[in-house]
Design goal:
The chain is α+β, with helices and mostly antiparallel strands and 107 residues long. β3 and β4 form a beta hairpin. α1 packs across α2.
Length: 107
């Protein structure tokens, strides 16, 4: 069972890192995520699809959620993106600089 958990963690981390680090993906995913209320959980697959992206690992991210908050430590232009899968007890977070994208005004 441990091997499956390790594989899940590596694959899930790859999906999440791609969403916040590959320009073709983050230029769509981050604005889509930031258009949703901060401090709430959102279905990860739904946000990915709302951004017009597809994931070959849809089954993997089934049940995963994503949320975002203004970063409490870095400058106000930074956000913290939190990925979480409750059933797998897995989480990952990333910091993203909003100024890296031409985003609409945040509320």
């Amino acid at each position: 069972m441990e091997d499956n958990d390790d594989k899940f963690a590596i694959d899930a981390q790859d999906v999440c890192l791609d969403l916040v680090s590959i320009p073709d993906k983050y230029t769509k995913f981050i604005p889509s995520l930031l258009s949703l209320p901060q401090g709430r959980w959102h279905d990860l697959r739904q946000v990915i699809h709302q951004a017009g992206l597809t994931s070959a690992k849809d089954a993997l991210i089934e049940g995963a959620v994503v949320g975002w908050l203004d970063d409490p430590v870095l400058s106000p232009s930074w956000v913290t993106v939190i990925f979480l899968h409750f059933e797998r007890s897995w989480d990952n977070l990333a910091h993203f600089n909003r100024e890296a994208l031409p985003l609409p005004e945040q509320k």
